[in-house]
Design a protein that fits this description.
Layout: H1 2-9, H2 24-27, H3 36-43, H4 50-57, H5 63-72, H6 74-114, H7 118-125, E1 130-136, E2 139-147, E3 153-161, E4 169-175, E5 180-181, H8 185-191
Antiparallel strand pairs: 1-2, 2-3, 3-4, 4-5
Length: about 200
């Protein structure tokens, strides 16, 4: 048993070749190793091409130079094209929205003026300074006068038939101070902005 232990503990005197273990950073050199300037120079995009050199030299560049230049600057051109298309689309959408808003406003104003009655006028613009009704069978005429801040008087004329007590019909809107008759919806609302309501 002692002999078996001795055999196990016996060492050979032969030399065994060993290899040194290197650290991972020393074993593989990074592709960007070296000074920071070298890395920066290697990764920089160089826009100078043969096309630029040709133009600087004052000669007409070849098709191959144009093709190479376009290939290198493709991303810039694509970005510019997308930006231009986006701006055109945005301008188109904005114009359509503005036109829709304008048409909606015009329709609302036309409806507001077309539906004016004495009651609606009072609800929208308040009580008139003068409100006179004359009955001449079979028609009743009503004149409502509104005084503006600059002492101008706007006169609204309405009529209706007396037999069936029909609804008032808006006849005209006049500026008594100036002797003007407002014909268009825009002129009427410009003269008295409170008309632009559906009350």
């Amino acid at each position: 048993m002692d002999e078996a232990k001795n055999k196990e503990l016996t060492y050979s005197g032969e030399a065994v070749a060993t290899t040194a273990i290197e650290s991972p950073t020393a074993a593989t050199e990074a592709p960007w190793s070296g000074s920071g300037t070298e890395f920066w120079e290697r990764t920089q995009y160089r826009p100078k091409t043969d096309l630029v050199k040709s133009l600087k030299a004052g000669r007409m560049p070849s098709f191959a130079e144009f093709k190479e230049f376009a290939k290198r600057t493709r991303r810039v051109w694509l970005t510019a094209a997308v930006a231009v298309i986006g701006l055109v689309a945005a301008a188109n959408v904005w114009a359509r929205v503005a036109e829709w808003a304008r048409n909606t406003r015009i329709k609302r104003q036309e409806q507001a003026v077309a539906t004016v009655t004495p009651e609606h006028l009072i609800a929208r613009c308040g009580q008139a300074a003068q409100d006179v009704t004359k009955e001449v069978f079979p028609i009743a005429m009503r004149r409502m006068t509104y005084e503006l801040r600059d002492r101008e008087k706007l006169v609204f004329s309405f009529s209706r038939t007396m037999e069936a007590k029909s609804d008032w019909v808006f006849l005209s809107m006049d500026n008594e101070s100036r002797g003007e008759n407002y014909q268009t919806t825009e002129a009427k609302i410009a003269a008295l902005p409170c008309l632009d309501s559906l009350k």
